[in-house]
Amino acid sequence: MVPHPVMIGFVNGLAIVIFLAQLGQFKVPDAVGDMQWLESGQMTLMLGLVAITMGIIHFLPKLTTAVPSSLVAIIAVTVAVVGLDLDTRTVVDFLRSMSGNADATLAGDLPSFAWPEVPLTLETFYIILPYSLILAAVGLIESLLTLTVVDEMTGTRGRGNRECVGQGVANVTCSVFGAMGGCAMIGQSMININSGGRGRLSGITAALALLGFILFASSLIEMIPLAALVGVMFMVVIGTFEWATFKLARRVPKRDFFVIILVTGVTVITDLALAVLVGVIVSALMFAWEHAKHIYAESHTNEQGSKVYEVNGPLFFGSVANFLELFDATNDPNDVIIDFADSRVADHSAIEAIDTLAERYKKEGKALHLRHLSPECHALLTKAGSLVEVNRNEDPTYRVATDVLG
Fold first, then answer.
1. Predicted confidence (pLDDT) per residue in 347-392, tens digit
2. Helix (H, G, I), strand (E, B), or coil: what is residue 390?
3. Quick check: 229 pLDDT over 90?
4. Is-contact 346 319, C-beta < 8 A?
5. What whole-number distance in Å separates Cα of residue 350 and Cα of residue 200?
6. By CB neighbour count within 10 A (0-12 exposed, 13-18 middle, 19+ buried), where does 331 fall?
7. pLDDT confidence bin for 297, thresholds 50/70/90
8. Which pLDDT belongs to residue 57?
9. At 232, phi and psi to the nearest 5?
10. Which residue has the higher pLDDT, 340 or 198?
11. What is the dihedral of CA 53, 58, 62, 64, to 10 degrees?
12. Residue 405: per-residue pLDDT
């Protein structure tokens, strides 16, 4: 099954963003604070360690899956760097260069309860509301799309509602302990899946291990070479990117491939939330445009000499133009019947199109009859309201989306 174009664009864009973020590890600040690429010797060492890390992650599972290959790669590269006393940047070096504090460390303490010290007023609420909505939207979108990616990889079906509720409860709870809000991370999820994690304990174990390192073994984490972490993330990029995208260019409709490229580009240039929003809107417009072509009418003359148009396909804002072109009010006979039994009037634009058609036949002095419209259509029609043939047994029942913009 080919995933939805928006999801493919999402994972591709996210993979590119992760890849570009790793390139910063190959740069160091110069005397004036500008970032410059590593010198040739340092760059060669860095690239070599990255390659070794990626090699271990790729080939170790072919020999054994008893231990996570990413963990083995990190430990092996760290031991090699420390044992050979190689001059390469470590986690603590990166932390100190980014913070500007020569004594920065990963060591931390357990969080303590602290109610946010802000005035509990409507003004505070209005300040916080837009940012909270944006963060919640980004978190939920990324979590649900990550859940979809994991489902595709594992052949399972996650529970999106439970994921959303759990994430909301966790973020509200951790906010009063000084923690940042979070969501499902595609990188960690990919590492967990590739390491054999399938149940809830995989995420819980990762969280507890991280807490344990920060509380008791931060010095060990600080020794890890950045090259090892970059190698792990490069493997995440390779596993996340949908490499079949290049083959899809010939297999899927051009509009779907356009959505893939669009969402990928917007994800890289702006952010995930905007990319998904743009992708959904463009997909919806393309869907409407495509279905606008599916409306047609078959015509014949009945025994009474009336011309009967049998409309097929949905009538909505995207298809009203094609709908109006189906009829020839000037050359049609004096009595015309339009049958909507195989059609559906979807929105207010469709209602207006029917009224416009009735006005055209009225100007030509010809009788128009409309059959098989729902009672709600009867009520919403203005100019054509008196032309509807009411048949309670045969007329369909459905509602019209009157709030859709035409």
1. 888 889 998 998 999 999 999 898 888 888 878 787 677 777 666 6
2. coil
3. yes
4. no
5. 50
6. exposed
7. very high
8. 94
9. -60, -45
10. 340
11. 40
12. 46
pTM of the model: 0.72
Contacts of 194 (CB under 8 A, 6+ apart): 69, 70, 235, 239
What is the helix (H) or strand (E) element at residue 279, kind and residue range?
A: helix 272-292
Of 350, 400, 338, residue with least CA distance to 374: 400
Question: In the structure encoding, which two tokens stand for residue 323, read together?
Answer: 């709908």
d(CA 374, CA 93): 71
- Cα distance between residue 307 and residue 8, in whole Å: 49
pLDDT in tens, 43-96: 999 999 999 999 999 999 999 888 889 999 999 999 999 999 898 989 888 888
Range in 146-150, 225-229, 239-243 with the lowest mean pLDDT: 146-150
Q: What is the DSSP letter of 59?
A: H
Quick one: residue 115, left, alpha or beta (phi over 0 = left, psi -120 to 50 = alpha)?
A: beta
- In degrees, to the nearest 5, what angle opens at C-alpha 4 toward C-alphas 190 and 277? 90
CA 70 to chain CA mean position, Å: 27
What's the Cα-to-Cα distance from 241 to each of 32, 190, 235, 249, 259, rounded to whole Å?
Answer: 37, 11, 10, 15, 16
Question: Cα–Cα distance between 19 and 237 in angstroms, integer?
Answer: 6
Whether the pLDDT of residue 1 is over 60: the answer is no
* Average pLDDT rounded to a whole number, residues 156-181: 87
Partners of 313 in the β-ladder: 343
Q: Identity (one letter) of the amino acid at 219?
A: S
Vertex 196, ends 191 and 198: CA angle to 5°?
Answer: 95
Residue pair 377/400 in contact by the 8 Å Cβ criterion: yes
Q: What is the CATH number of domain 293-387?
A: 3.30.750.24
The confidence score (pLDDT) of residue 393 equals 64
Domain ranges of the chain: 5-286, 293-387
- Residue 159 above 60 pLDDT? yes
Give the C-alpha separation, 368 to 378, whole Å: 15
35's enclosing H/E stretch is strand 35-37
Q: CB neighbours of 73 closer than 8 A, spacing ≥ 6?
A: 52, 53, 54, 56, 57, 60, 228, 231, 232
